[in-house]
Amino acid sequence: MKAGFIAVVGRPNVGKSTLINKLVSEKVAIVSDKAGTTRDTIKGILNVNGNQYVFIDTPGIHKPKHLLGEYMTNSAVKILKDVDLILMILDGTQEISTGDEFVMERVMEARRTPRILVINKIDKLTDEQLQAKKEEVAEKLGKFDGIVEIAGEYGIGLAKLLNAIDPFLEEGIQYYPEDMYTDMPVYRIITEIVREKILLKTRDEVPHSIAIEIINVERRENGKDKFDINIYVERDSQKGIIIGKNGKMLKEIGTEARKEIEILLGKEIYLNLWVKVKEDWRKKKPFLKELGYFSED
């Protein structure tokens, strides 16, 4: 048995969560086309061929504009010195940006941690475009301990990626049971499911202004368990969007979230959603701490 912790980093929306979900063959991280979808570091655990790969999905590293953004970036950067390997993900279809260079600067701060560059979305590139991307990488980002090309959404190149990771795993160790695919608490997964349904149905500033909190759970021996969940927004206008005309939007969100939560729990539940306005909550440290998005560290 060999095992290791692998941090998956990159700027927002380059495909980190999609890649980890595909590797683990389970949904451990919610996915949307909105930047900033991932807010916490999330572990996805893969046991294969006698090896245990602990992939750590991180929030997109970016220059923060508020306390929540500061928490997200700090939580991503903090783990880089404590892992066995860093995978830096690039969207191969886009020119290397100042955002990618900003991520690379943070990666370079973890000087002793090996790093592999992963060029994602190669299914959209010709051979000539892929070669040009590698040359651009050498010019703008410098050297890596390896480069792997993948299409995470379709599972292309994942075997090569695991082979590239293998030399950096530690011999004779196993961190988690073989049937475990994430260490995220069930209640946290539930709040993330609700947030994902909102992300998929809203746009503009609304997705970034959403926070989810379970306020009550009622266990029932002879009936369905009941979950009461608050959806926090920053403006009255956002509350109206989430609720929708005659409550239609909120009902759709609740129905889709309930079905997925029932699959997760293996039982039917009652799910009650409430929409509350918490003005500028992303800038308020006490509230962020209540939601688990901030610590004194």
In short:
The protein has 9 helices and 10 strands. It has 297 residues and is α/β, with parallel strands linked by helices. The chain has 2 domains: 2-171, 3-Layer(aba) Sandwich (Rossmann fold); 186-290, 2-Layer Sandwich (GMP Synthetase, Chain A, domain 3), CATH 3.30.300.20.
Spell out the blueprint of helices and strands.
Layout: E1 2-9, H1 16-24, E2 42-48, E3 51-57, H2 67-78, E4 85-91, H3 98-109, E5 115-120, H4 127-140, E6 147-149, H5 158-165, E7 170-171, H6 186-201, E8 211-218, E9 225-233, H7 236-243, H8 248-265, E10 269-277, H9 285-290
Parallel strand pairs: 1-3, 1-4, 4-5, 5-6, 9-10
Antiparallel strand pairs: 1-7, 2-3, 8-9
Helix pairs in contact: 6-8
Please report the number of helical segments. Answer: 9
Average pLDDT across residues?
90
Shape, principal axes of CA atoms: globular
Largest sheet: 7 strands, mixed
Strand-pairing-aware structural class: alpha/beta
- Can you tell me the CATH topology of the largest domain? Rossmann fold
Domain count: 2
What's the CATH H-level homologous superfamily of the largest domain? P-loop containing nucleotide triphosphate hydrolases
The amount of helix comes to 25-40%
CATH architecture of the largest domain: 3-Layer(aba) Sandwich
Low-confidence stretches: none
Count the E strands.
10
Radius of gyration: 20 Å
Strand content: 15-25%
